[in-house]
């Protein structure tokens, strides 16, 4: 043993060749914390002091190579003043550069995932070998920053500026074949041959067969790109990146500008330029929100993993009701490895469900994400049936029939008599009380809600709704099944609308009141889309379905009459009366035509304004800030109420549910994070300004108390 630390150790391999192994004590994965960086520096000191070492391979003692930096440290680190943060960044860069500058050949032998800082240390090595199981990338833009430990400096010098911009600005992860194609790695080998191949590569360097010193020098020099060509590359890529990233995600375009800025600097000066740009991003509200979401996601995963101890296995599932939703659920279950029965009362429904699954699988094949053989295997694990004959062996049933309490209760009672005593029943209802649906069941403790969002394959959230009598084991089983399906489950307690729809409909209530007072729905859509929503409220209602919206609104007004019961006729009512149901029948607030790909395309229909005359005041202009306030305050206030009422257990779960369930603007971090960033006292003051419109705007007593005491939801 040449060196032994808590993160790194240095081991002799054979004469003149040593192994620098990252194997973080007490952790399942390797990640760079402050202490791990300090340990790396000491390990490198030991290597330099040992004159017998002529070559070095960088390895991992875990299945995952290095997942990157320890993001738990980001929040406090990024709060430091600019000078302190710059010094810290350069301290890490000095350690990484000292690895790069070792007077010997170095090879990174990457056996698993190497992301962010984990891949940046690999770029410091002279050569990179990947196992066929590995995956590499620089995903920092997803946290609102760009690589800050030399990634923007070294990668362009290794794979060229245009390829580096694509890698860094997209934040994508790359498999070995893609990494090899652009020259980010030097070879791909089977896992069992990785270490031996790395040692052989070192031997070739020591023997003078490979010029590793030229590799080192290339990364220390200026970027080899003629000035005119450089200008063309950066201007072209900047335009593409700006269009793809949109106006709110700052990091992708900042990464392009930073690479351009330091392209003709030598390494050490380039690293300083990278660090200065990094600091600006690290201090942004976007970074704060995105890092917060990452930590929220980790909290949800940790909670779901903890509950899995109570979960029963789901080796076989069933969905009741085929069609688009049932087919989507069946597809997702089968795709992720859980065979599923798909039952309907008629063959047409089954045909529709199978067609939906086939369409989704065909798209995967067309994109090269699956071959025809795998597609056939997935389809074969979806078993269509018109009877309950095979339901005796099913572990979880998802009821996805029409949104009608009477029908659902009848179907659930029937299936309960056909399954084993251990089977967990669930309902995909979006609004109907789980406690009410369980009222006629013999085993209500084995029933809960499992609310998928449409389209099932694309939407990551599943609300798991606990009824009054639902057991914790049933909840845990459904949470685990949702995770197995590749979804993020959020457990909520039963109430009208559960978490997500309960919060969404006050937002629609704000929209209805705006139109009543003379706002143009097109202007409201544009303002809210600029705010960051994927679509404005009128467009969203068209996509959801006006008839669906009317039904859900009725449930909400009955459940919360004090603030959600309307005392005026709305634009939504007018759309419904005129059978303008939205995309489903080609006309709602907008008209819909098919585009070249056969998808509905939104076009303006001026005749709508005449229809709305009876319920809308004379048209008048509203400024953007008023529209945003009148739309967002009801949504935020209802989110607060779900937290105070115990419908959702934590701030993290509330914000993640809105991000994943209704597309709350990612860069704002969720409704509660948005309130924190505004200031709780400032939010209360703004809400009071609009409180005359509706009780939806009234702050709760607890929120007022938070404002007075200067507290925040995230406790910062």
UniProtKB/TrEMBL annotation:
One of its GO terms (molecular function) is long-chain (3S)-3-hydroxyacyl-CoA dehydrogenase (NAD+) activity. Keywords: Fatty acid metabolism, Isomerase, Lipid degradation, Lipid metabolism, Lyase, Multifunctional enzyme, NAD, Oxidoreductase. Its EC number is 4.2.1.17. Pathway: Lipid metabolism; fatty acid beta-oxidation. PROSITE patterns: 3HCDH, ENOYL_COA_HYDRATASE. GO terms for biological process: fatty acid beta-oxidation. InterPro entries: 3-OHacyl-CoA_DH_CS, 3-OHacyl-CoA_DH_NAD-bd, 3HC_DH_C, 6-PGluconate_DH-like_C_sf, ClpP/crotonase-like_dom_sf, Enoyl-CoA_hyd/isom_CS, Enoyl-CoA_hydra/iso, FA_oxidation_alpha_subunit. It catalyses: a (3S)-3-hydroxyacyl-CoA + NAD(+) = a 3-oxoacyl-CoA + NADH + H(+). It holds the Pfam family 3HCDH_N. Residues 316-495 form the 3-hydroxyacyl-CoA dehydrogenase NAD binding domain. Residues 497-592 form the 3-hydroxyacyl-CoA dehydrogenase C-terminal domain. CDD domains: crotonase-like. It comes from the Bacteria. One of its GO terms (cellular component) is fatty acid beta-oxidation multienzyme complex. It is an enzyme of class 4 (lyase). Belongs to the enoyl-CoA hydratase/isomerase family. This is enoyl-CoA hydratase.
């Amino acid at each position: 043993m040449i060196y032994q630390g808590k993160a790194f150790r240095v081991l002799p391999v054979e004469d003149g060749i040593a192994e620098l192994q990252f194997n973080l004590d007490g952790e399942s994965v390797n990640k760079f914390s402050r202490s791990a960086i300090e340990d790396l520096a000491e390990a490198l000191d030991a290597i330099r002091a040992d004159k017998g070492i002529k070559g070095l391979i960088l390895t991992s003692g875990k299945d995952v190579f290095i997942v990157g930096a320890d993001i738990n440290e980001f929040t406090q680190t990024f709060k430091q003043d600019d000078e302190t943060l710059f010094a810290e960044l350069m301290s890490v860069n000095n350690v990484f550069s000292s690895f790069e500058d070792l007077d010997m050949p170095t090879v990174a032998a990457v056996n698993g995932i190497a992301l962010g800082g984990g891949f940046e240390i690999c770029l410091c090595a002279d050569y990179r070998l990947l196992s066929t199981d590995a995956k590499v990338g620089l995903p920092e833009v997803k946290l609102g920053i760009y690589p800050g430990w030399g990634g923007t400096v070294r990668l362009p010098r290794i794979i060229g500026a245009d390829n580096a911009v694509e890698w860094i600005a997209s934040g994508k992860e790359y498999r070995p074949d893609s990494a090899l194609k652009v020259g980010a790695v030097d070879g791909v080998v089977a896992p069992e041959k990785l270490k031996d191949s790395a040692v052989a590569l070192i031997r070739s360097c020591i023997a003078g067969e490979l010029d590793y010193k030229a590799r080192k020098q290339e990364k220390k020099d200026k970027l080899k790109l003629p000035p005119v060509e450089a200008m063309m590359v950066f201007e072209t890529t900047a335009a593409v990146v700006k269009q793809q990233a949109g106006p709110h995600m700052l990091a992708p375009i900042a990464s392009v500008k930073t690479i351009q800025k330091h392209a003709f600097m030598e390494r050490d000066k380039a690293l300083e330029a990278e660090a200065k740009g990094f600091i600006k991003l690290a201090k942004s509200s976007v970074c704060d929100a995105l890092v917060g979401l990452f930590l929220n996601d980790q909290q949800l995963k940790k909670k779901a993993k903890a509950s899995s101890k109570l979960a029963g296995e789901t080796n076989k599932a069933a969905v009741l009701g085929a069609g688009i939703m049932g087919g989507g659920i069946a597809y997702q279950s089968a795709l992720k490895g859980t065979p599923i029965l798909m039952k309907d009362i008629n063959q047409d429904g089954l045909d529709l469900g199978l067609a939906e699954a086939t369409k989704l699988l065909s798209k995967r094949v067309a994109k090269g994400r699956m071959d025809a053989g795998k597609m056939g295997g997935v389809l074969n694990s979806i078993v269509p049936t018109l009877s309950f004959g095979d339901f005796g062996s099913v572990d979880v049933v998802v009821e996805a029939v029409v949104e009608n309490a009477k029908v659902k209760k009848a179907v659930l009672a029937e299936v309960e008599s056909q399954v084993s005593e251990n089977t967990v029943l669930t309902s995909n209802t979006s609004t109907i009380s789980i406690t009410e649906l369980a009222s006629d069941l013999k085993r209500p403790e084995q029933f809960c809600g499992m609310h998928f969002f449409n389209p099932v394959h694309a939407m990551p959230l599943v609300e798991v709704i606990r009824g009054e009598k639902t057991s914790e084991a049933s909840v845990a089983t459904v949470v685990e099944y949702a995770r197995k399906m590749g979804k993020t489950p959020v457990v909520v307690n039963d109430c009208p609308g559960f978490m997500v729809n309960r919060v969404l409909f006050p937002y629609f209530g704000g929209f209805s009141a705006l139109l009543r007072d003379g706002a143009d729905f097109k202007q409201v859509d544009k303002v809210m889309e600029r705010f960051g929503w994927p679509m404005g409220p009128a467009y969203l209602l068209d996509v959801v379905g006006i008839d669906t919206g009317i039904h859900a609104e009725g449930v909400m007004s009955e459940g919360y009459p004090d603030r959600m019961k309307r005392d005026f006729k709305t634009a939504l009512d007018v759309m419904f009366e005129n059978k303008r149901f939205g995309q489903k029948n080609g006309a709602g607030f907008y008209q819909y035509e098919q585009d070249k790909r056969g998808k509905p395309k939104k076009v303006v229909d001026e005749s709508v304004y005449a229809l709305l005359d009876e319920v809308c005041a004379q048209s008048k202009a509203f400024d953007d800030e008023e529209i945003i306030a009148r739309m967002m305050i009801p949504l935020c206030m209802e989110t607060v109420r779900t937290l105070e009422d115990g419908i959702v257990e934590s701030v993290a779960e509330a914000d993640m549910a809105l991000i994943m369930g209704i597309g709350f603007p990612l860069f704002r971090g969720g409704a509660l994070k948005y309130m924190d960033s505004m200031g709780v006292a400032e939010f209360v003051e703004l809400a009071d300004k609009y409180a005359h419109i509706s009780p939806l705007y009234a702050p709760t007593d607890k929120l007022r108390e938070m404002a007075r005491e200067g507290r925040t939801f995230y406790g910062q």
